Amino acid sequence: MRRPSMRIGRWRMARPWLLPLAVGFAAAGLRYGLIEPSVMEQLCSGRHSPLWCSWRQLLVLGFLHDVYGGLALAAAAWALVGKRPWTACLATALGAFALELYCFQAGALALLIGCLRLLRWQTQALPRQPPAGQHRQRDQHVQSQP
Q: How far is CA 17 from each of CA 75, 107, 131, rounded to the nearest angstrom?
């Protein structure tokens, strides 16, 4: 039976991964629900377009000018220099956002750097324990024959 503290520790370790996951899903929703459908393009290209079409236009201009990739790379550089785990979480989230919104190279690099920094922070936060059974008494006996 598992101890309750183990479950709390696992949830605590999983919490920083929830923001990049949510940002990735939100970016996918924006891409496939607002940017890519031809119906949205036709709706926003008319004379009497809805008010939210200006937000759609800003999203499109953002990936055309590689704004999301630049922000993701800046966050990745900050995660490399910074000592806080939230900078790695930010780099991971912005990398996922940029990757989903057509900034493939910069987004993938920022996502990779953010994930590696977040994993490193999490492994350093774990308690140090020797491997189980490494220094037991029975392992110290020498056998004369193999």
A: 16, 17, 27
Residue 92 structure tokens: 């991971």
CB 30 within 8 A of CB 101: yes
Spatial distance between the Cα atoms of 8 and 119, rounded to a whole number of angstroms: 18
Which residue in the block uniquely carries the two structure tokens 């704004």? 67
Cβ–Cβ contacts within 10 Å for residue 15, how many? 10
First-to-last alpha carbon distance for the chain, in angstroms, is 38
Residues 6+ apart with CB under 8 A from 29: none
Please answer whether residues 20 and 96 qualify as being in contact, where contact means their C-beta atoms are separated by less than 8 angstroms.
Answer: yes
Residues 39-76: tens digit of each pLDDT: 988 888 878 888 888 999 999 999 999 999 999 999 99
